[in-house]
Design a protein that fits this description.
This protein is mainly alpha-helical. The protein has helices at residues 21-32, 37-57, 63-93, 101-123, 127-151, 162-181, 192-223, and strands spanning 3-5, 153-155. Strands 1-2 form a two-stranded antiparallel sheet.
Length: 224
């Protein structure tokens, strides 16, 4: 049950990937390079902006060009997650805590979600849907921070927390790209637009469910 309280030694999102030797080596390498957690958080925002630009360009693309744009956007989404993982790990390696650390830990994520989902909406000509899903994702994170501010509990529960959102987006992008590259799949009647729309809607519905779950848990905690 992905919940941690303010008395925990570690208030970060519980991720098994932090224990992976490759993740630990990469974090140590970045730390030894002199990179700060805030700089890595900024890099996550840069990758999200690149994803947005690739998705925006995909609106007028097709065939192999569309596949390349989708794969590039999927890669940027995953690199965003790598940065999200590394900024926390590098922060733990550092003995210095910056006053603005909390801002850099949260604000870039909210902008990144907006860029990616709005980009997905633009890529299929449904910008309103993209904005709606972005708003739902921001609300999910807001409720987590609201709970933390009220009773010190960080609720990272799903079913559509940030890692799940990016997994859903990545799958939609890669399937849409594959549709352009594998001729036999084009005979199924599926289109890249349809797959992207399904991905957006799954993220949107999942965010609404997650919002309800987190609000219910917060309300339950407050009632004791």
């Amino acid at each position: 049950m992905s919940i941690q309280n303010e008395n925990s030694a570690d208030n970060r999102r519980p991720l098994q990937s932090r224990a992976h030797p490759l993740a630990q080596k990469l974090a140590l390498y970045l730390f030894n390079l002199g990179l700060t957690a805030n700089q890595i958080s900024l890099a996550s925002l840069v990758f999200s902006l690149l994803a947005f630009l690739l998705l925006w360009l995909s609106f007028q693309a097709d065939g192999y060009v569309l596949a390349v744009l989708y794969v590039g956007a999927a890669l940027c989404c995953q690199l965003r997650l790598v940065c999200n993982l590394m900024d926390g790990m590098v922060a733990m390696l550092s003995t210095q805590k910056t006053p603005s650390g909390a801002i850099w830990n949260e604000l870039p994520d909210r902008i990144a979600d907006t860029l990616i989902f709005v980009g997905m909406g633009l890529s299929v000509g449904q910008s309103a849907l993209g904005w709606a899903v972005a708003a739902a994702a921001i609300l999910v994170s807001y409720v987590r921070e609201l709970g933390h501010g009220i009773d010190g509990v960080m609720d990272y529960s799903g079913p559509m927390a940030k890692p799940h959102r990016m997994a859903c987006v990545t799958v939609a992008l890669l399937l849409s790209a594959m549709l352009q590259l594998v001729p036999i799949l084009q005979n199924t009647g599926l289109t890249a637009n349809n797959l992207m729309l399904v991905g957006l809607m799954v993220c949107g519905v999942g965010c609404i469910v997650t919002l309800i779950v987190r609000v219910s848990r917060l309300n339950k905690r407050l009632k004791g």
